[in-house]
Specification:
Blueprint (H helix, E strand, L loop, with lengths): L1 H22 L3 H8 L10 H10 L2 H5 L20 H10 L13 H12 L3
Helix pairs in contact: 3-6, 5-6
The structure holds heme C.
Protein name: Cytochrome c
InterPro entries: Cyt_c-like_dom (IPR009056), Cyt_c-like_dom_sf (IPR036909), Cyt_c_BACSU-c550-type (IPR012218), Cyt_C_IC (IPR008168), Cytochrome_c550/c551-like (IPR051811)
Keywords: Electron transport, Heme, Iron, Membrane, Metal-binding, Transmembrane, Transmembrane helix, Transport
C-alpha cells in the first residue's frame, strides 16, 4: 500500500517537472528578450553627431564625449561592441536613460556604430 502511494507521488512529481520544463521560458528566450537585436544600417557619422546633440547625450557625456554625469565615451569602442552600445542606449542602464521611445531603432544603431568606432 505504501509503495503504491510513493510511486503515485513520484509519478505526479515527474509529470509536474515535465510540464514546468515546457511552460517556463528557457534561458535562451529570456536572454533574447533582454538583448534587443540591432538592425543593420550603414553608418552615417554626421547623422550620429546630430542625434547625440539633439537627444542631449552630450549634456551627460560632455560636448566632446569627455564625460560629465555619464562616463567618458571617447574610447568606448575599445570596451564595448556596437551591439552592446545599442543595448545600453535602447534599454538604459543605471543613470543612463532608455531611448527606445525617443529614437528609431535605426537611429540608435547608427549612433551605436559611430560610438563603436571610437577607439
Ligand atoms: C541623463 C544623463 C544621460 C543621458 C541624457 C545619456 N546618458 Fe549615456 N550614460 C549615462 C550614465 C550615468 C551612464 C553610466 C551608466 C552605468 O554604467 O551605470 C551612461 C552610460 C552610457 C554608455 C555606456 C558607457 C560605459 O562605459 O559603459 C553609453 C554607450 C552611453 N551612455 C551613450 C549615450 C548616448 C548615445 C546617449 C544619447 C542617445 C546618452 N548616453 C544619453 C547618462 C546619460
Amino acid at each position: 500500500m505504501q509503495k503504491w502511494i510513493m510511486s503515485g507521488v513520484l509519478t505526479i512529481a515527474v509529470v509536474m517537472a515535465i510540464v514546468l520544463m515546457f511552460t517556463l521560458p528557457g534561458k535562451e528566450q529570456v536572454a533574447e528578450e533582454e538583448k534587443p537585436t540591432m538592425p543593420e544600417v550603414t553608418m552615417d557619422a554626421a547623422a550620429a553627431e546630430s542625434t547625440i546633440k539633439a537627444q542631449g547625450c552630450i549634456s551627460c557625456h560632455g560636448d566632446q564625449l569627455q564625460g560629465a554625469v555619464g562616463p567618458n565615451l571617447q574610447k568606448i569602442g575599445s570596451q564595448l561592441s556596437a551591439e552592446e552600445i545599442y543595448t545600453i542606449i535602447t534599454k538604459g542602464k543605471g543613470g543612463m536613460p532608455s531611448f527606445k521611445d525617443k529614437l528609431k531603432a535605426e537611429e540608435i544603431a547608427n549612433v551605436a556604430q559611430w560610438l563603436a568606432e571610437k577607439k
